[in-house]
Each structure stands twice: as structure tokens, then as C-alpha cells.
Specification:
single chain; alpha/beta; Nucleotidyltransferase, domain 5; 2 domains; five-stranded mixed beta sheet; 12 helices; binds 5'-O-[(R)-(carboxyoxy)(hydroxy)phosphoryl]adenosine; binds zinc ion; cytoplasm; EC 2.3.1.234; iron
């Protein structure tokens, strides 16, 4: 089959994403988020996310089919994220996908969430085709990973990842300690606009020469978060005014600097003049601009898919499965389960 019609199910975190693609063409991409329910806890609560997926799945599948103008019987395959992610949340999607595939008698493809983020780029109809090899930087509330993609379906290598908090999680935690609501990324972004990014020299995690030997492509944001907390506490204890705008701008600069520096180092080391960005933190204007500017200066072409494809979604899962099908990959057998730490 040249252009398989695939329905993708994504439930690895707090978004219930159902997407339908025909080959490399996006037909629908519905997203139901339980973000609001997590807001009062200041972060994603796994049990709440899993239950929200259960409730959202059926109506989301119906909405996606209607939007795409196709029926379940038309599908050539079902695809689902089997990991990495929150175990309970993943289990809901995997169970639903198996039930759907078995009841329809259609092949089922279990795919990796991180590789799915890379596949999202294929659905960007306005961009020229993705070329390989490419370096990919995926930054969200759940992950911060740097990958070398030599071939989407056969050769994706994890170069490095965060050793503690994800970048988006750091935004959320720092926003919280500054008294800003969840999710923190957009809030920090808003407040930082009025601040000076050079006001406070916050640490760049794992960037010292001694760290770079073993952790050249790894990230760490917990030290940065602690540094922000300590700075705010000390100023307040001394009775000094804290400029929330300067703290937000300086914190954001520290995150952006280390993300872009390490991503471009990976490009240089592997002689790859292409960098693909993905994940919800890509909404950050400063990150996009810095990557584009410093990428251009380094001779690296930076690709940024539309935000609706960068945040967690089912279309990217369907797109990856379509690529697997078109490359002749056999479907998954029903033995697979949710794997919260699934490697790429
Ligand atoms: O990919 P995503 O929508 O969902 C998951 O992580 O599952 O990413 C959400 C994360 C949150 O941590 C949020 O604070 C962060 O992305 N985020 C941002 C911005 N918008 C969202 N971080 C920094 N700047 C932003 N403008
Ligand atoms: Zn994700």
C-alpha cells in the first residue's frame, strides 16, 4: 500500500491525542488535555491523567474520524505510544489501541513517543522534506532529549537527556516559586519580557569542562532551580526587592543557553548541519529565536514544526507508524505492554 490510513493514539502524559494520517498527509489531530485538572497541584498527577484519558478516548476517536471524514472500517492500521511516559497513562492508550485493532482486525503498531516527536515534522506540509542525518532536540514537561537521527525508521540514537528535571518541568517549578500559576512556561515567558536576561548569572547545568567529558549531551536543571530559589530567599531575607522580571528573564536565558549550546555542539561533533526542534517548550519565543540565530551563525538549518505538532499529539504517532508501514515493517504482536522507560 502506498499511503496507509493510520489512526494514532497518544496518552503518555496529560494529553489524549488522536490523529489520523494518510501516508504523510495530516487528516485530523484532536487533543484533549487534562492540564486544567493538574493546575491546582502544580504539576501532572499520574492518576488524574490516566482517568482523564479513559474518559476522553472514545469521544476523541469519534471526533478525529469525523474531522478526517473517514470511518473505522477504512483504517489500514492503528498506532499507539507504548512508551516512554507515565505508566498508568500509557496503559490506558495501549489497552484501547489493542481493543480497537483486534475488534477491527487491523494491524497494530506500538511506537516510541520520542521518535514520534521527530516524525511530527513529516506532517508539516509547508516545509521541504526532512533530510538525514539530523540532530533533534525534544523539550517538554516530561522530557529533554538530544537525538541523532540517521534514519527515522531504523536508526535513531539517543545522545543525551536530562539527569533530573525536564526543561518544561523546570519552568513550571520556578514559576511556582515566583508565585506564578501552572503551567509555568508561558507565565515565565510573559513576565521575562520586561526583564534583563543578564541581570543574574544563574548556572548552566553540566556545562563545566569537568562535566562535559561524561555528560556532553546531557542536561541538568535541578541545580538551576535551587539557585533561583536561593537567590529569591536571600534577597527577601535581606529585605531587598526581588525583580520577578529579571529573575524570570535570567532563568529563561540559562535554560535556553544550555539547550541551544548543547544541541549545536551535537551538530558540530557529528558534522550534521540540521537541527530539528520538538516538544511543548518550543513555544518559548526566546528558545526559537536563539536556536535560529545561533544555528544560522554555525551553518545549521533549524527546523521548527508548527506548535500543534510539537506538543504531544496522536498525529505524530500515526505519522511514525505510516513511515514504518511504508518501509515494510511488520506490525507489533499483541504481547507488548506499556513501558514507561522504553528506550529509543
Ligand atoms: O509538550 P507539552 O505540551 O506537554 C508535556 O510535557 O506533556 O509541554 C508542556 C510543557 C510545560 O512544562 C510548559 O510549562 C512548557 O511546556 N511550556 C513552555 C512554554 N509553553 C509551554 N516552556 C517555556 N516557555 C513557553 N512559552
Ligand atoms: Zn512529548
Amino acid at each position: 500500500r502506498d499511503e496507509p490510513l493510520v489512526l494514532g493514539i497518544e496518552t503518555s502524559c496529560d494529553e489524549t491525542g488522536i490523529g489520523i494520517v494518510r501516508g504523510r498527509t495530516l487528516l485530523s489531530n484532536t487533543i484533549a488535555s487534562s492540564m486544567d485538572e493538574h493546575a491546582r497541584y502544580g504539576g501532572v498527577v499520574p492518576e488524574v491523567a490516566a482517568r482523564a484519558h479513559l474518559e476522553a478516548l472514545q469521544p476523541s476517536i469519534e471526533a478525529a474520524l469525523a474531522e478526517a471524514g473517514v470511518a473505522l472500517a477504512d483504517l489500514d492500521a492503528v498506532a499507539v505510544t507504548s512508551g516512554p511516559g507515565l505508566a498508568g497513562a500509557l496503559m490506558v492508550g495501549v489497552g484501547a489501541a489493542k481493543a480497537l485493532a483486534v475488534s477491527l482486525g487491523k494491524p497494530l503498531y506500538a511506537v516510541n513517543h520520542l521518535v514520534g516527536h521527530i516524525a511530527a515534522d513529516i506532517l508539516d506540509a509547508d516545509a521541504p522534506p526532512l533530510e538525514y542525518p539530523t540532530v533533534a532536540l525534544l523539550v517538554s514537561g516530561g522530557h529533554t532529549s538530544l537525538l541523532l537521527v540517521r534514519d527515522l525508521t531504523t536508526d535513531v540514537e539517543l545522545l543525551g537527556e536530562t539527569m533530573d528535571d525536564a526543561a518544561g518541568e523546570a519552568f513550571d517549578k520556578v514559576a511556582r516559586l515566583l508565585g506564578l500559576p501552572y503551567p509555568g512556561g508561558p507565565q515565565i515567558d510573559r513576565v521575562a519580557a520586561a526583564g534583563d536576561p543578564r541581570a543574574i548569572a544563574f548556572p548552566r547545568g553540566l556545562s563545566r569542562a569537568s562535566d562535559m567529558a561524561a555528560h556532553r549531551y546531557d542536561f541538568s536543571f535541578s541545580g538551576l532551580k535551587t539557585a533561583v530559589a536561593r537567590y529569591v530567599e536571600q534577597r527577601r531575607a535581606a529585605g531587598d526587592e526581588v525583580s520577578v522580571a529579571d529573575v524570570a528573564a535570567s532563568f529563561r536565558e540559562a535554560v535556553v543557553d544550555v539547550l541551544v549550546t548543547k544541541a549545536l555542539a551535537a551538530c558540530r561533533d557529528h558534522d550534521v548541519p540540521r537541527l530539528l526542534l520538538g516538544g511543548g517548550v518550543i513555544a518559548n519565543r526566546r528558545l526559537r529565536d536563539t536556536a535560529l540565530e545561533r544555528g544560522a551563525a554555525a551553518g545549521v538549518t533549524v527546523r521548527i514544526p508548527p506548535l500543534s505538532l510539537c506538543t504531544d499529539n496522536g498525529a505524530m504517532i500515526a505519522a511514525l507508524a505510516a513511515e514504518l508501514i511504508m518501509s515494510g515493517r511488520e506490525p507489533s504482536t499483541l504481547e507488548f505492554g506499556a513501558d514507561s522507560t522504553l528506550p529509543v
